[in-house]
Amino acid sequence: MSYRVFIVALAGVVATANAASIAYDKVQPIAQPKPVTISEKAGVKFKPQLFVDSGCFTFPAVNAAGETSSGLPAEQGNYFCVKRYNLLGSQVYGRATWYKGVWAIMYAWYYPKTITALVATATHDWQNAVVWINNPDLESPKIMGLSTSKKSETDHTKPHITRETFKSDVTYDKRTKDFDQFLDGTSFKLASTLILGPIFLRPMTEKKGEFQDLVMWSQLPDVARAALNSTEIGNVPFSDANFQKKLAEAWPF
């Protein structure tokens, strides 16, 4: 291992060790940076809008200092998890790459607790959507597909949540045509909802949602990336350990 690689690795370990969990409603969202790269510009261009119509509201998972949300206890339904407690604002996280010749942009939202049929079942949850386009470098990229998660990403059957308890069993609703009814320009209209089961995402036609500040994986501070890669904050779908696995599960073609 070279000296430079060793120093970078050591810095990541130290940053992770120094990171802490703080109250879920004290995590300051990271302001959306100005997009510079082709990937970042495409991320903003296709950023979905989210309408939370039931279950838990979305909150930031990590701040610029690498402090992560401690979440909410698995009790009292969606109490404390509704919008009026979200005074600092929410966040959407993004990560993009080529996958089997198609450009995949994952957008992910964090929930302080898992809700199943209005019953809180675990601390921490994530839901995500993958927008598939032909080429981000084109002047007008074409949408090729949309995959939306429809199953809780936390294995709430386990008594103690650790990174080892998470299973890659998330399923997706997948579409490869008839997008216009769900689009507002280049932005998909998504709803976060639950119907006798865990929170899931669905494209909707009836109303618009809200935009959250987007921060792409490459734009996150090093300490924030390290925290999301190593901190027990649910099954982060865009972490280094999970990203490729989730794209394989979301593949719609």
UniProtKB/TrEMBL annotation:
Any one Pfam family match given in the protein's UniProt record, by short name: NPP1
Highest taxon of source: Eukaryota
Signal peptide segment: 1-19
InterPro entries: NPP1
Annotated keywords: Secreted, Signal, Virulence
Chief subcellular location: secreted
Cellular compartments per GO CC: extracellular region
Membrane-spanning ranges: none
Keyword tRNA processing: no
Localization of this protein: Secreted
The keyword Ion transport is annotated on this UniProt entry: no
Family membership noted in the UniProt record: Belongs to the Necrosis inducing protein (NPP1) family.
Protein name as catalogued: Necrosis inducing protein NPP1
